[in-house]
Every structure is written in structure tokens, then in C-alpha cells.
Design brief:
four-stranded mixed β-sheet; 18 helices; alpha/beta; L-arginine/glycine Amidinotransferase, Chain A; 16 strands; 32% helix
Length: 480
């Protein structure tokens, strides 16, 4: 179905390899599921709470996501797709003691447990930045690409994802000679893990890389064992230091090339429930809000000591308030390096482009940042230019461009080992758009979640999707 993209952004060498290999960063976007709705389930996610109960547009949401994938692919970037979890998750309802036919369980949930029904119908797996933490083969001890699905233990609607997400990752990255998909960390308070939304890999992109050249920035909200340590007061801290260190160890990373930084409690209480709401990095560049880290100076000093030519791009709170950063998701952007063919018109920054949500261009303070820092006469040189994309249906539920994608740096051989149908090509995106138009509803209300017809439509749609992507039987209903 798909042709392996031949685009490049980072350079590296596999551990133990006889010759240098090129790492190409691919973005695997989560496909929006058929039950996309606004239930306001995510405490601490301001946008999710603000839009709770509104009428959702699943078809438009999925098409917006595919349009973003197509546009990045047209920029010359390697673009893949991750299948969504199956919803409603009635197998979870049965574990919780509900019995009867699917229609009977849905009716009971709607009458007795409407919040649980909404949790079991959430399409939150669309935010692939929370799917897993990824370490490329150049950085791991065994020379394989490692994935740890996030346990997402903080919220029930997300905590039910890791099993299916792991199955989808194993089907997408199926070559066990090259890929390792670990089980999620135990779902304990001390090991709260939200995946790549709190992880950034930096590297010196000016020189030929060497094994283990990546520097891994892990950001946590709380050190669980430190009862006297800083903690947010309004909203929960979802990522722990203990989880960050566990993922780094199990992936075989060099801990001397890892930086563990605490997120600002002020940022969490403002609604930055993940670090990617206030920070994004790529190559030598880190674009961040002044209030992103508890110890900004210490974080920058540690990164300067590890990343050659490190380039921090700081936005001061006097220019953009935290509330504006959270409202517009200025930092929940994709920071990508374009291949040579796609760099026409960029201003410096080695072809680096910021992919921001359209909301960031509509608010005066954040628009000024985009216009002055990136591609304008006062450009800082670290980021060449910017582009904006419309993902409003995702934004209204609290996820911007960065939330929708999982970054996976791969060698050429590893790219060829990915399940081919999961790569985006013009023809494959055409197929997926036709699939969405065939199966997805134009509108979805909270009352629609109890419909057994919606449940059946979703199953038929996902069964068809696994054939388009070539994934095999990855869903519980396919194995029943």
C-alpha cells in the first residue's frame, strides 16, 4: 500500500554497525477514531473542559488530521499513520461487571454510568504523542528501536489504551530484529507515564553523528518519592521522575546523555498538562516558554553541556502569557527539518520549520511571535520559517499538531521494515480519506454514544482500516 519515504533530517550510526547510517525522523500521526466527541474528561486540560458537551464532527476531525499528514508529506517529510483504538471499549465494561448484549450494556451505561460510557467511547488515542516514548537504534545499547507504550494512569479514558496501543505498535513495527515494543510501566502512582509528550531528543545536526549522539530531555511533573518537592496545586502532575528514569533504563540509553528536568508547577496549574504544551525541540533547537521549567537556568546549562551548538529560543512571559500559550498551543507545534528540496523560502535555521495550529496565528501575541521570530526580518536564525495548520476539532479537545504525532527516527533499513501500508503516500491518503467519508458521521452528540448502531459502524470501519493498513487482527472484536 505504501512506499517507504526517502527523506532525511538527522544523521547517526547504528550501534555495532560497520558503516554510518542515516537516521530519518518520521512522524506517525494518530488517526482520529469514529467516536471522536467532546466529553471534557481530562481534568487539567483547559480546552477539553471548555468544550465539554458540544457537538463534535468526527468526519471533519479525521479529514483535518489526514490533511495535516498530506501537507507534511508534500514538504518531503517521512509521514506515517497509527490506527486508533477501538471504541466503545465494551470489553472494559464487561471487566467492570456489566453483562448482556452490546446494546444492553450501552443502554445500562447511558442510564446508570454516563460518565463511564463517555470514557469508554473516548477517541483520545488520536493523540499519538502519548502513545509511547521512542528511542532510536543509534542511542540504545542493543542497536534496536525501543518503544514503551505510556501507561496513562492518570485518567481512566486513557488508562484503558496501552494494551491496544501496544498491539498496534507491534503490528506497525513488527520486525523484532529491529524493533522492541515493551509493555507499559506498572500503573502505579510513582510511575505515571504520559509518553513522548514529555520527551524530546536533541542532537548536533551540524556534524556527522556518532553512536549514541542523541541527548534525551525527559520532563516530569513530580518526583513522587520526594514528598517535600515542588508540586502543582490546581491540577495533577501526570509524569513522574521515576517513570522517566525507568523508560531510559529499559531502552538502554546512556544516562550521562539524559537530562531529567522538572516542569514548572506554574505551567501545569495554567493547563500545560504535558511539557509539549510549553516546549518543543528538534536538532540543536529548543523552542520554549519562559515558565516551561522549574529550573530554567539549570536545564539550559545541562543541555549546553551535551548538545553541540545548542540554540534555545525563549519566549518571555511578558510577550506571551502562559494562559495565551495554553489557549493557542503555540508550543504544541511540530519543529521539523525539511529535506533540501523543501527548503525554498526558508530563512536560515538549516531548513527548520515550525508547524503551528491556526489558533496561534489568530491571537495577537502569538501571531507576533510567529511573524517576528520565524521567517520575518527579525528571524532568530534557529528556526527558518513557520506554517499553520487547521486541526480545530483536535484543538477543541485539547490536542494540537504535536499531540497528534509520534516522532520515530529510523534508519533506511528500519523504514523498509515498517508495515508498508502505514506509510503515507498520496494514494494511501486518498484511500484513507475515502474510508473516512464512507464510515464517519458528520456530527456526534453525547447522546449518540449509547447507540449500538454507532458501535457497529465503528467496528466495521476499523475492520476495513486494518485491511487498508495491512495490520492484521489488532482489535479485541476481531479476535473474539
Amino acid at each position: 500500500m505504501g512506499k517507504v519515504p526517502r527523506t532525511g533530517v538527522t544523521r547517526g550510526r547504528s550501534v555495532g554497525a560497520a558503516e554510518a547510517q542515516v537516521l530519518r525522523e518520521a512522524n506517525f500521526d494518530g488517526l482520529v477514531g469514529p467516536t471522536h466527541n467532546y466529553a471534557g474528561l481530562s481534568f487539567g486540560n483547559v480546552a477539553s473542559s471548555r468544550h465539554a458537551g458540544r457537538v463534535a464532527k468526527p468526519r471533519e476531525a479525521a479529514l483535518q488530521g489526514l490533511a495535516k499528514m498530506r501537507r507534511l508529506m508534500e514538504m518531503g517529510l517521512a509521514q506515517g499513520v497509527l490506527a486508533p483504538n477501538a471504541r466503545p471499549a465494551l470489553e472494559v465494561a464487561r471487566v467492570l461487571g456489566f453483562s448482556g448484549s452490546d446494546a444492553q450494556i450501552l443502554a445500562t451505561l447511558a442510564k446508570e454510568e454516563p460518565i463511564l460510557l463517555a470514557q469508554l467511547c473516548s477517541a483520545s488515542s488520536m493523540w499519538a504523542a502519548n502513545a509511547a516514548t521512542v528511542s532510536p537504534s543509534t542511542d540504545t545499547a542493543d542497536g534496536k528501536v525501543h518503544f514503551t507504550p505510556a501507561n496513562l494512569k492518570s485518567m481512566l479514558h486513557r488508562a484503558i489504551e496501552p494494551g491496544q496501543t501496544g498491539a498496534i505498535l507491534r503490528a506497525t513495527f513488527a520486525d523484532e530484529r529491529r524493533f522492541v515494543v515493551h509493555p507499559p510501566l506498572p500503573a502505579a502512582d510513582a510511575l505515571g507515564d504520559e509518553g513522548a509528550a514529555n520527551h524530546t531528543r536533541l542532537f548536533d545536526d551540524r556534524v556527522a553523528s556518532r553512536p549514541g549522539a542523541g541527548v534525551h530531555l525527559f520532563v516530569y511533573g513530580v518526583h513522587h518519592a520526594d514528598r517535600a518537592g515542588a508540586r502543582p496545586r490546581r491540577y495533577p502532575a501526570r509524569q513522574t521522575l521515576e517513570a522517566c528514569k525507568a523508560v531510559a533504563r529499559r531502552h538502554g540509553l546512556d544516562l550521562a546523555r539524559c537530562v531529567f528536568a522538572q516542569q514548572s508547577t506554574k505551567a501545569i496549574d495554567a493547563g500545560a498538562f504535558h511539557n509539549d504544551v510549553v516546549c518543543v525541540g528538534n536538532g540543536r533547537t529548543l523552542f520554549y516558554h519562559e515558565d516551561a521549567f522549574l529550573d530554567e537556568r539549570g536545564v539550559l546549562a545541562a543541555l549546553r553541556g551535551l548538545v553541540g551548538g545548542f540554540r534555545p529560543v525563549r519566549v518571555a512571559r511578558r510577550s506571551v502569557a502562559l494562559s495565551a500559550a495554553v489557549k493557542t498551543y503555540l508550543f504544541n507545534a511540530q519543529l521539523v527539518t525539511l529535506p533540501e528540496a523543501g527548503r525554498k523560502g526558508t530563512v536560515g535555521g538549516e531548513g527548520t520549520r515550525l508547524i503551528a495550529p491556526s489558533e496561534a496565528a489568530e491571537y495577537r501575541a502569538t501571531r507576533r511571535v510567529l511573524e517576528t521570530l520565524f521567517g520575518g526580518p527579525h528571524a532568530n536564525g534557529a528556526i527558518g520559517d513557520h506554517a499553520v495548520m487547521d486541526v480545530r476539532e483536535s484543538m477543541r479537545n485539547g490536542g494540537g499538531p504535536a499531540c497528534l504525532r509520534l516522532r520515530v527516527p529510523l534508519t533506511e533499513a528500519e523504514m523498509r521494515s515498517v508495515t508498508p501500508g502505514c506509510w503515507c503516500t498520496p494514494a494511501q491518503i486518498d484511500r484513507l480519506e475515502a474510508w473516512v467519508k464512507r464510515w464517519y458521521r458528520a456530527k456526534l452528540t453525547p447522546a449518540d454514544l449509547a447507540s449500538v448502531t454507532l458501535h457497529e459502524e465503528a467496528q466495521e470501519a476499523l475492520d476495513a482500516l486494518t485491511k487498508i493498513l495491512g495490520l492484521g487482527r489488532v482489535y479485541p472484536f476481531q479476535q473474539a
